[in-house]
């Protein structure tokens, strides 16, 4: 079963320095039909003005993943971590027992465009931790590159939940497939371009909920960049 979430149907927040699109309920945006999908709770597509960003604030008991599309994020947190995140890198911060952090546009002249993702951890009160890994373009082009997983395999960042996160850059006219094991669900999020997923047409900003499917087939209609979350199916 496939359920399409169109880009224009997402929640929208405009704060001057921040333009944010919410795939799921977040902050002042609430839709009882979209309060997350399985263990995936948040996908925010954020555009941040030059020199602006999210000042120091706190989180607990959440796996927070950032995926940059354009620009750079300057990250600082209460564990002493300081880093700059650019396109091709994936950042994972486990808030656990509590962490304060800031996420600022690292440039004073260029905009920042990125996806912020929250996943419910499998255990509460984990020690706060941080991880950042680069995944070169050639390793994501016309292939499914695992960039996040519970066991950190193949150099992916470690996510404290039963999830596999894939990233891909799919060229127009190319096809990819991803098998899904029984009792697995998936969410596909298109960041740029256009493709078909099991015959469903998707464009930038669209999301697709997938349950009771044995495989996903991706057909490039334009050059496209997308993420796939392979998740445990929590339905009773």
UniProtKB/TrEMBL annotation:
Q: Which InterPro entries match?
A: Pirin (IPR012093), Pirin_N_dom (IPR003829), Quercetinase_C (IPR041602), RmlC-like_jellyroll (IPR014710), RmlC_Cupin_sf (IPR011051)
> Where does the Quercetin 2,3-dioxygenase C-terminal cupin domain lie?
147-231
Cofactor: binding comment:
Binds 1 Fe cation per subunit.
Q: Where does Fe cation bind?
A: 57, 59, 101, 103
Q: Does the keyword Metal-binding apply?
A: yes
Please give the cofactor(s) recorded in the UniProt entry for this protein.
Fe cation
Q: Indicate what this protein is called per its UniProt record.
A: Pirin
Please give the organism: Labilithrix luteola
């Amino acid at each position: 079963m496939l359920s399409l979430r169109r880009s224009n149907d997402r929640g929208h927040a405009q704060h001057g320095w921040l333009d944010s699109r919410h795939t799921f309920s977040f902050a002042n945006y609430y839709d009882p039909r979209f309060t997350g999908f399985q263990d995936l709770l948040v996908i925010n597509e954020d555009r941040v003005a030059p020199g602006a960003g999210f000042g120091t604030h706190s989180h607990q008991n959440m796996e927070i993943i950032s995926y940059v599309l354009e620009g750079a994020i300057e990250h600082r947190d209460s564990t002493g971590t300081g880093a700059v995140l650019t396109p091709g890198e994936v950042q994972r911060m486990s808030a656990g027992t509590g962490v304060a952090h800031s996420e600022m546009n690292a440039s004073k002249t260029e905009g920042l465009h990125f996806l912020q993702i929250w996943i419910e951890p499998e255990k509460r009160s984990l020690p706060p931790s941080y991880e950042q890994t680069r995944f070169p373009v050639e390793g994501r082009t016309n292939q499914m590159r695992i960039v996040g997983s519970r066991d950190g395999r193949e150099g992916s960042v470690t996510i404290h939940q039963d999830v596999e996160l894939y990233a891909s850059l799919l060229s127009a006219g190319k096809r990819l497939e991803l098998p899904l094991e029984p009792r697995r669900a998936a969410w596909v999020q298109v960041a740029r371009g256009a493709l078909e997923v099991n015959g469903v047409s998707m464009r930038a900003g669209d999301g697709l909920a997938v349950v009771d499917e044995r495989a996903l087939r991706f057909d490039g209609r334009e050059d496209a960049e997308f993420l796939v979350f392979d998740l445990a199916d929590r339905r009773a």
